[in-house]
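Is this the right way to post structure tokens for a design question? Let me know if I should format differently. Anyway, here goes:
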């Protein structure tokens, strides 16, 4: 996907909340600033010089995007902290004019690297900012690929909750397909039909549409790429609807016609208790796929929000693991339990 960071606050925040990409970008950028409180900060004059724009241009962006920039590290120093910053500047071997006339100023705005990067993703007048934005996007993609072993198709499986959710869903899937076999008067394509009904109900896409958005092959299994929260909700649908079918067959004393099953499903999916669970699943799926897989679910755009730092730790951090490693650990646990018996 061709991203325009100047127009997308979600894409900007996903980058700024990704600590692994930030570390790589900071190393690559090599920005020279003022050492202060264990990090590097820059003044408006330095930022304007880097981007080859006027100080007024930087001030305009600070006015237009004050909330976003402050959230991501821009702050105005006063009092004791300002005095310490002035002392840090004095010990630097650079001309005083590089920082403007700050000796008597009662307050001073500073950008840490995160805020500087935030500004780089906003400034449209600067060629340097444009080049930096392209480098940022490349580094983010490279970082995610490196930490996932070269691809993000199965990044969902690096989550520690995935394995349990996948096992649970598989059991309820069997209950669901058995109910369709025993209760629905329809050919074998009924399995695909009612599976798609569940998918559309939860994330507004049929299996074929989902495969296309994630650029998967026809042979790829949709469930193998779904996040734990989505699998949990699918399992709840399968379990609940299977029970509903079996109970209806007992009442009628015969298999159900497709039209009857469709009416049952419509009633089933519109129950109010599903709403918060569906909204959560849509948010997780749409937001994570955009951030990790560069895949936009057009039907779920309204649910996209920036990922928080803990989400990056969950899927590409030190706590995330390959499925094979988790399977090996699970096997060892089951073996120990068996030996204990």
């Amino acid at each position: 996907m061709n991203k325009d960071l100047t127009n997308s606050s979600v894409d900007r925040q996903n980058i700024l909340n990704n600590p692994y990409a930030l570390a790589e970008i900071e190393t690559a950028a090599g920005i020279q600033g003022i050492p202060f409180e264990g990090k590097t900060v820059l003044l408006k004059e330095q930022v304007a010089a880097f981007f080859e724009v006027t100080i007024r241009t930087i001030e305009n962006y600070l006015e237009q995007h004050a909330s976003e920039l402050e959230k991501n590290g821009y702050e105005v120093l006063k009092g004791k902290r300002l005095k310490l910053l002035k002392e840090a500047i004095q010990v630097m071997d650079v001309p005083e004019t590089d920082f403007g006339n700050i000796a008597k100023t009662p307050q001073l705005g500073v950008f840490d690297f995160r805020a500087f990067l935030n500004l780089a993703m906003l400034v449209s007048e600067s060629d340097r900012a444009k080049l930096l934005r392209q480098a940022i996007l490349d580094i983010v993609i490279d970082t995610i690929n490196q930490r996932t072993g070269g691809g993000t198709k199965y990044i969902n499986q690096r989550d520690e909750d995935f394995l349990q959710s996948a096992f649970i869903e598989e059991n309820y899937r069997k209950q669901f397909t058995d109910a369709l076999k025993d209760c629905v008067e329809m050919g074998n394509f009924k399995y695909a039909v009612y599976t798609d009904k569940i998918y559309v109900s939860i994330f507004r896409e049929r299996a074929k549409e989902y495969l296309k958005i994630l650029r998967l092959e026809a042979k790829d299994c949709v469930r193998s790429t779904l996040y734990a929260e989505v699998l949990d909700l699918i399992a709840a649908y399968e379990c609940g609807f299977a029970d509903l079918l079996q109970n209806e067959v007992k009442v009628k004393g015969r298999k159900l016609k497709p039209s009857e099953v469709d009416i049952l499903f419509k009633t089933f999916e519109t129950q109010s208790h599903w709403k918060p669970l569906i909204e959560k699943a849509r948010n997780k799926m749409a937001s994570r796929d955009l951030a990790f897989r560069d895949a936009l679910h057009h039907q779920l755009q309204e649910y996209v929000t920036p990922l928080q730092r803990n989400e990056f730790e969950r899927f590409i951090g030190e706590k995330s693991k390959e499925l094979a490693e988790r399977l090996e650990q699970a096997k060892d646990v089951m073996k120990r339990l068996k030996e204990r018996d």
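Format looks fine. Someone answered above. Worth noting: The longest strand covers residues 107-112. Residues 9-147 form one domain.
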